[in-house]
Amino acid sequence: MALSASVTTCLSQPVHYAICKVGFEKKDTYDINNILSGNGEVCWQAVTEHVCYLEPDQSVDYIKSIRSLGPVCESVNLYFKSLTKEQFVIQYASWFHWTNCTEVFLEVFDVIQYTQATEVALGLMKLTSCLERALGDVYLLKGNDCPFLLRDLLASEQLADVFGQAVMNVLRVFIGSPHGLNLRNVLWHGFASPQEIPTKYCAMLLFLTAGLGQLLQTYLLQTKCVLVHRPYVIFISLEELDAFPGKYLSISKFLLSYVNNEMLSVAEELVKLSSFVLKTMLPFWIAALTAFKQSRYADSVILLLPQLEVGLRLLFTTANKCPNRLLTAESSALYTTFDEMLAKHLNNEEVNQLPVVLEEPAMASDFLWDFLSHQEGPRIRDRLSHGEINLETFPREVANQIVGFAITILCRFSDEDMFSFKEHMVIKPLMNCASCYRSRFHPISRLKKQVLECMKSIHLWPELPTVPEEQVQTIKGLEGNAEANTLILMISEIISQLQHYMPQNCCSSEDPINSVLTERLLMELCDTRICTLYSPRPVLEVVVVLRKISTQCHQVSQQVIAGAGLRYAQWVRKALRSRQRHNYRRMLNSIKFLSPVLRLILLLITLELLSVYSVCRKNPSDYQQYLKFLKSVLQYTENLVTYTSPEKNKWDETMELTKTTLIKIRKTSDRRLMLMHLAT
């Protein structure tokens, strides 16, 4: 990986020319008063005059526009540098309120004053993400579904109606168009080094954002519309983001203890020596670690994510022998981004070799999929880059994970003579954590979580308040007769058939139902490692159905818990009519049998999950029949939700439906067990 030392830029020649040279070709001195009125407002007409157009379609000529706007940007930059912070706040702070991120834009002003390249790049990344979010809020004044891509948002009719097409064309010169400077993308995807981003473009975007605020204020006054800001994404259940559980110390707890001393000291040495780090990008790494030290967790992650992308891109292009893909693509092609690097196949259908290069492909790929791509995961990069997260309250727990992962990657791609680093008392436990990482947000992982949560809910049933046994009359056709015994017998028979696919000695001959259908067994089965990387479509289709079944079972359990509590309270208060008392007794009798049935279904879900890969691969002809059976179980659980709802309370129908379904499961299980046996 010596290539990392030889790479001097990740910008292709045309992109480097556009960003670093074109805007400096005109040496004219531009008078700031041409675009600034006496009261500090932006004279938009004077700005838009610098956008050039192509004949005959009047599309933007981006290179000529950049060249023409270059002196304007420099004039704005010098103007801002001439202002004190107090002057800037008095004159411009109110024009940033529409972004809902005023403080971020005031920070960018501070950055411009000192022209530290790394901080300018960071300021631009934060500015563009906040600006995109604010523009999306404006879009929703006139439209419904806000475009996901900044490029499409800036090209929308809705924003053109509010700000004017000429104004939007100015913005597209700087961000959103692959034909222009495209500052947002080249920074967020890790293509630009700190010294390749001119400060004057940051100053100009700050200036334009204030100008947009002035235009928007006029529009809102004229239309009497009210700008509503969408709520930020809030990370709940932060313990789920503690990505490395198990026998080793978790990364979060580990970093909380060491990140401010030994670990950061070691990390700062690693970034200078690791072959994963491009030397031109070294300032970004140092700044990211410094930000973490200073408790600026959003800044740390914003700086790290593009560097993880460019480092992995270096591995990707080397492993797949396409070194040209290390550079920014032209406007006619796609960038090599996380999405492609994490895919199983390349665009030419050849197998992606990056997982082979990674020493722990499942760990690295699963972690990246979890934190960046899976829909139920935090999707850190998307949400940060699109302005969906409040930067001021960004949680340390998330930053812990990204920093921890970054350090493990730095270690994995270090020279052999760096053995002492890898064995360091601070680093080694971290590497051990990484080696046992399992996906948290893949659909299979979410299914396991659902199953265990549902089982916990069902285990609450014995603790439900209930009337004394002697007050519960035996219901004809249910308890104490042959039909009830038949239900128990069927469950026992199914359990007996499944024993071969469960841990030994988990079944008691005296009580097969309560000895097998336990939370402990499900936890043991769910702890079985299943490969989640590159799950084939048939497997994911099965998992979708299994998750729906689990969801329905949980809904039934919640309804039983709520219904039993309500009915008991009414019974105590003697508030139940005769028919309601009779139905309550039926409910109490029914849930005695419903509990083992639901627990059996959860066991079946788990065993199906453990065999699904092999069944789909070795018995593809049985796949549709297999799916049909699962959908019939889903139909049963959906009906169960209806029958056990407070509105229906159909307990006789519940038991009849359960009997029919158990018969079907018992008949089908023989065939399924054969498939599972062949698969294993």
UniProtKB/TrEMBL annotation:
PANTHER family xrefs: ENDOPLASMIC RETICULUM MEMBRANE-ASSOCIATED RNA DEGRADATION PROTEIN (PTHR31701:SF2)
A Pfam family hit: DUF4209
Coiled-coil spans in chain: none
Domain of life (superkingdom): Eukaryota
Organism field: Melanocharis versteri (Fan-tailed berrypecker)
Matching InterPro entries: DUF4209, ERMARD
Protein name, as recorded: EMARD protein
DUF4209 domain residues: 131-211
Gene name tied to this protein: Ermard
